[in-house]
Amino acid sequence: MARGATLDPPARAGAGGLRARWYALRARLVADPRFQRWAAGFPLTRRIARTRTRALFDLCAGFTYSQTLFACVRLDLFGMLSEGPVPEAALAHRMGLAPEAGTRLLKAAASLGLIRRLPDGHCLLADLGAALVGNPAIGRMIEHHALLYEDLRDPVALLRGEAGPTRLAGYWPYASGDGPDLQGDAVASYSGLMSASQALIAEDLLEAYPMRRHRCLMDVGGGEGAFLTAAGRVAPDLQLRLFDLPAVADRAEERMMRAGLAGRFEAFGGSFRTDPLPPGADAITLVRVVHDHDDATVRILLAAVREALPPGGRLILAEPMSGTPGGEPITDAYFGLYLLAMGSGRCRSAQELRALLSEAGFRRTVEVATRRPLLTRLLVSTR
Fold first, then answer.
1. Which helix (H) or strand (E) holds 22?
2. How far apart are CA 133 and CA 195, in angstroms?
3. Cβ pair 152, 341 in contact under 8 A
4. Is 244:222 a contact under the CB 8 Å cutoff?
5. For residues 360 and 184, which has the higher predicted lDDT (pLDDT)?
């Protein structure tokens, strides 16, 4: 009974009619209130039923969870607790909240595993809150999500294309094709956010792929050069190039000078939609660039990369990919709606990316394992 109660499909069910009929039967059974009540009380299915109930409630209440996290970041709760336990009353005062409101927020944060409330009235960081302190770029992304919340106010209108101009489309103006004419002020906020968030994955990518084997690396769509800065540190002899919109390339030059890499670095301003990529690099990286664009633009980009590489040169493509085991909510729910609100792009599977790379003329594509595939996976293609 317990085995059947999990409602697993028949082991030998094919991808066609039998499996579809099984899942339809399963859905009808789970939808029956009498089955739900029985499963919640029967000893061998009670735990499964309670887990499913919690999961359904989490889907309904998820917005309040993310807003609790947003409030904690905006009020700097985790920073206040970074040095050790603090009394609840003192935390409420520092956050500018009335005692009752402070307690309400602290209880909510504790329930989500962000902080711990001790019996003596003090609070301290829990594991999730401590992880946020150690990765300030995550805090910037959480605050950035205020724009996404506005765009998802009416998700049905967004899906139907009836929402009008979105906040995210305005924040990422290059997604709509507006790029070469952008000035410094227009790119400052988004390129700064890109630089901060790239730090989260640069270490994983550079651990997975040995950049020392190359002579010259060009990062296309590389923003202010955060990834190139990290690559330059692990490969001291590597020549560094960056190609991005002119206003962004100017910002990258300033950053690389401050990092002491000016003698090894060269920036090129342009748009890969209309301008050829400069030749000379034996490796080109696309770090979280492809998923920002629709297929037609990706085809232009990959063709430009292939043209710029010498025979045997490598394209190193890194981004979150649909179909990653355990990562489906990240790629298909989060990025699915985020990129829709942005107005361009989608998360593709590794198979879809391989097909686009093959169409562009790359001879061979292999996947290189990364430490945290939920954040990014890595494909390496040979010209």
1. helix 17-31
2. 18
3. yes
4. yes
5. 360
Largest CA distance in the chain: 73
- Local structure of 67: helix, strand or coil: helix
Helices (H), 213-311: 226-234, 246-258, 295-308
Q: Which of 45, 52, 46, 51 is nearest to 6 (CA)?
A: 45
- Contact at 8 Å (CB) between 286 and 338? no
Q: What is the rounded distance in angstroms from the CA atom of residue 77 to the CA atom of residue 112?
A: 14
Tell me the whole-structure pTM to 2 decimals: 0.85
The residue assigned the tokens 């593709």 is: 348
CA 357, 361, 366, 371 torsion-angle sign: negative
Distance of CA 50 to the CA centre of its chain: 30
Rounded to an integer, what distance in angstroms lies between the CA atom of residue 225 and that of residue 262?
12
What pLDDT shows up at residue 102? 97
Instruction: Name 306's Cβ contacts closer than 8 Å, sequence gap at least 6.
Output: 315, 360, 361, 362, 383
Q: Which of 11, 5, 9, 108 is nearest to 52 (CA)?
A: 5
Task: Say how far apart CA 230 and CA 238 lie, in whole Å.
Answer: 11
* 227: its two tokens: 């990834």
Report how far residue 124's alpha carbon sits from residue 32's, in angstroms, rounded to the nearest whole number. Answer: 44
Q: How far apart are CA 35 and CA 259, in angstroms?
A: 63
- 214 phi, psi to nearest 5 deg: -105, 160
C-alpha distance from residue 12 to each of 9, 20, 22, 29, 133 (Å): 8, 13, 12, 21, 48
Q: And the tokens for 305?
A: 């990369």
Residue type, 148: L
CA 241 to chain centre: 24
Nearest to 378 by CA among 206, 227, 135, 138: 206
Tell how strand 86-87 and strand 122-125 pair up: antiparallel
**Chain Cα centroid distance, residue 352:** 18
- Letter for the amino acid at 114? L
Rg (CA), the chain: 24
pLDDT in tens, 147-195: 999 999 999 999 999 999 999 998 888 776 655 566 656 676 677 777 7
Q: Which position has the token pair 């030998």?
A: 12
Which residues 6+ apart lie within 8 Å of 212 measured at CB?
234, 235, 237, 238
